[in-house]
Predict the 3D structure of the following.
Amino acid sequence: MSTSMATTAPAKPPAPPRQCCRYLLLPSTGHRRSVAAWSAKKKNPWLDPFDDGPDEEFDYQGMFSGGKQEEDPRPPEDPENPYGFLRFPQGYNPELDSLASKVRGDVRRACCVVSGGVYENVLFFPVVQMLKDRYPGVLVDVVASARGKQVYEMCKNVRYANVYDPDDDWPEPAEYTHMLGVLKNRYYDLIISTRLAGIGHALFLFMSSARDKVGYVYPNVNSVGAGLFLNEMFKAPTNNLADGGYKDMLEWIGRPAKNVPQQPTQPLRVSISKKLRAYVEDKYSRAGVEKGKYVVIHGIASDSVANMKSRGDDDCLLPLGHWAQIAKEISSGDRGLKPLFVIPHEKHRDEIEEEVGDDTSILFITTPGQLTCLINDSAGVVATNTAAVQLANARDKPCVALFSSAEKARLFLPYVEGKSSCTVISSATGNLIDIDLNAVKNVVKDLEPAPSFALAQK
């Protein structure tokens, strides 16, 4: 009887875990050397002379070593936020500009980077007005220097005025990045600049992330590469844009498009608040003059940093001796007018009292808004090529403008032709100090006190 028996093969021992090759056989010697010992060898100093291997004192397990970090808690929503009350998921950026708005080219938020000081910022007012006329409801912000920001207390069309000097070629890195962050977080549709742009300033406008970047470029080789970062650029006629205003930019903003006619350029206008007017009225009353019975004198030569000189015209201030003769002619006669000297620094008060007389009316003005109120309540203005000339024409006050040459008068006052309220007197030699004082005296004789009823209407 045969019996079949199932035999079971003996179990094989488990295979040892597979290991990587830990040793390297050097053919030259036949000795085994550790790869770790081989890799610990100092690197070639010629490849990186500053690499001395891993730093034993450095903590390689600090922040961000574990990958993505937890996000900051979401800030509370504010219904009164000027940028809108939106609900969007955490981690997503809100899209404020719709596709239809982009196709139409609408501008709802605009930023103006204005170069220069008081004079240049006053000339920029028509550009802001053109933006408001072309895009009703647009919110306009301004970036200007500390002195330029003071101008926009007279402009009701500006929402925010930010202090940043666009003319600083070497700004502080913290200030530079902070201003870029402010511009990026406001989601501007349009950013325009009056600083002559090279590649550096063009990059500043480009990094603002605005939809349209518009600005002037240098009229020379300094403009190389700037146009690559701008949607629209204008080649400046000269290195001083304040010569004739911002004509190219005004024409571009008011251009006809999509059944919208060409927008006409509005004349320069400035507004005055009631609170500021009351403050200035009290100020000049304490200086010894009455409303409508004084003539503003502006443009005294000064060695102070805060002088009245405008950019682009170095010869625009007269010495005190010339002004003393003009002031004497203003106060002569039976018209009842008194000259009022506006000084840029208190140190000039003693000089004027010694040259003109102790009973001379002198006023120290600190802001362009106060100067505008002072001009508005006066009988007229006698000034050189300073901001006072532009402000007097903006308020339609009688003005006698003194220039070093007829060419500069045409450049800085291109709109004055046919305007009876402004009289231009220029020097025949090209130097302001050689101006004909007899001609100035004959013109200031025609200034009359302002009627009281006309002042009450303003």
In short: The radius of gyration is 35 Å. DSSP finds 16 helices and 14 strands in the chain. The CA atoms of residues 404 and 431 lie 5 Å apart.
